[in-house]
Structures are given as structure tokens and as C-alpha cells.
Amino acid sequence: MKILVTGGAGYIGSHVVKALGLEGHELLVYDNLSTGHEWAVMYGTLVKGDLEDRALLEKVFREFRPDAVMHFAASIQVEESVRRPLLYYGNNTAGTLNLLDVMVRTGVRCLVHSSTAAVYGIPDVVPVAETAPLAPINPYGSSKAMVEKILADLALAEDFRYVAIRYFNVAGADVACRLGQAYREATHLITRALKTAHGQYERLQIFGTDYQTPDGTCIRDYIHVDDLAAAHVLALDYLTEGGASEIVNCGYGHGFSVREVIEAVAHVTGTPFPVEETGRRPGDPPALVADSSKLRSLMKWEPQYDNLDFIIRTAWEWELALKRRESCAA
Fold first, then answer.
1. What pLDDT does 276 receive?
2. In which domain, by residue range, is 83 found?
3. pLDDT at 111
4. Residue 202 domain flag
5. What is the pLDDT of residue 85?
6. Total domain count for the chain?
7. Which of the residues 30, 89, 140, 238 is marked catalytic?
């Protein structure tokens, strides 16, 4: 198949590009490289472009003529979204609207969309199922919830099908240490903790210790990025086999607190590091854990890497490799 991947040079997108490339698909990656990297595109052709550039986007679609689209291009930091809401509604909602308009006008009818558990806000029941009400508490979650509504309306109005995958906290790196998180400023807990263990930061901050959780810190469902990539490939297969539009969660169904993650990072790296307790960040729910039974049953997803130490170990090996890469470049 010919597949266009937006945001395919970024952390999650690049792992999906790898998985698709290994299956032999013909790929075009469309990425503005604001957070992605050219070296992370292991398969296919990279076109540098922004979703705001509708003329370039349409040109790429008409020349490449994809059979389906995988959509990862988005801004994803919860705390930043609270400070810069217009950026998130612009990049995530308006950018996706541009993409969908070009898809419809060029006759591309299948989309696998990167959504988020942030659409749930603070769920009443944990683990949270897809039937839970959407009540986002930050602009990031709201921007993604708006996209899901647009997708639902479009699927009713047009011959258009999609799978929106709501994923929880993605972590880890390619098991062969070829890809991983390489953001210019680390914000994800595991990556930040690893960089602190490596000496890049003086201390790791814990944002909030008074949540209604067993140890007072936030609980999240951490999923290995390769398991998430496999879910995207299965979603694509589901659509190409004629499956109806669906929304599915992707997570392991159990969570770890911030303190538990810090302990695991210290154990895996063999390096205890300073921790500073500080106040809550705006927009952080106390606990988010996935009920992924729908994904498992409908698309036969069987995760391979449901182990926090393994997730951290792959991320740690990647951090060491990234440090060596940066040293060689210098």
C-alpha cells in the first residue's frame, strides 16, 4: 500500500514508519521537523512541510496518491497547552481540518488518527473505557476531542472511515536502539528521569504529591512505543479490510505512580538522583489507565513489552546512544 504519514519524523510517528516499512509499504513522510528529525525516517521519502501549507499538502497528495493516511503531526505537551491554547487549537484542530479537506478533495478515504487519553479529563472509573464521557481539562485534550468530533461528522457525511487511537503514556525506544525520544527539551517523565540520572539535569521535579492516589503522585499507564506502533499497523489492516470507523484505547490496563517510575529508573540505571517535590501542574488528572479490551478483541492486539523495567531499559540504552551521537556530531 501507499501510505502518507504526517509527523512521521517524530517519536511515535518514526516508530510507526519503521513498522510499516518492515511490512513493505510504500511511504511518504510529511513533517515540518519542528520536533522530528530527518535521521529518524528509516523508510520512505521525507517531504518537509506544514499542515498549514495547503497548496504543498495537496500537491503531495496528488503526486503520491496515497491509499491511506497515518496522522501524527500535533503539539502534545499538556502544560504548554494551558499556556498557549491557540497554538494547540491551531496545530491540532485546524491542522487536522486542513489535512481532512485535502484527503476528501483528492479521494483518500482511510485515516488512522493519533488521539489521546487526555480527552477523558478526570474519569470517574479507572481503567477508563471508550464509552466514558469526554471531559478534557486542558487545551491539548480539548483540541483532540474536537478532531474526534470532526471525524465522526465527516464519516457520516462522506465515504470516509477512520480509526482514532487514544493512547496513554508512551515510553521506551526501538528495541534495536535505532530510534527513540529526541526532543530538544524533555518533558516526558521517564525521559526526564533518565536524563537526570545521566547528569543532564540537577534534579527531577515531582509535580504534585497530594493527589488521591496511594502515594499522592499521579498514576499513568505506560506503554512501550513499539507496542503502540503495532496497534497502528493493525488499525490500518482493519480499515483496509473494510472495517467500520472506530475509536480504541491503547494501553496496558495498569498504571504506575510518579514515585514508582522514579524508583524503577534508579534501579535500571543503578543511579539514584535528586528529586524535588513541588506543586501540581495545571491540567494533570490524578490517574489515567486504559481499558484496551476493545483493541485486543477487535483488532487482535497482543502487546509484547508490558514490563516497566524493560520499557525504561530500552529508553536508557537509547539515551546513551543519543549522547554518543551528539558527542560525535560535536
1. 96
2. 2-171+222-250
3. 98
4. yes
5. 96
6. 2
7. 140
**Could you tell me the three cell numbers for 229?**
506502533
Which residues lie below 8 Å from residue 88, measured CB to CB, with a gap of 6+?
Answer: 75, 80, 81, 139, 140, 142, 143
Cell triple for 279: 506543586
Q: What are phi and psi of 179, to 5 degrees?
A: -140, 155
Whether 11 is catalytic is no
228 within a domain of the structure (yes/no): yes
Please tell me the predicted confidence (pLDDT) of residue 272. Answer: 92
pTM, rounded to two decimals = 0.95
| The predicted structure's pLDDT at residue 78 | 85
DSSP letters, 23-46, are TT-EEEEEE--SS--GGG--SSEE
User: What CATH number is associated with residue 274?
Assistant: 3.90.25.10
Q: Which residues of the chain have pLDDT under 50?
A: none
| Strand arrangement, sheet containing 256-257 | 256-257, 219-220, 287-288
Q: Would you state the cell numbers that stand for residue 43, as one nine-digit string?
A: 523508510
Predicted local distance difference test score (pLDDT) of residue 323: 75
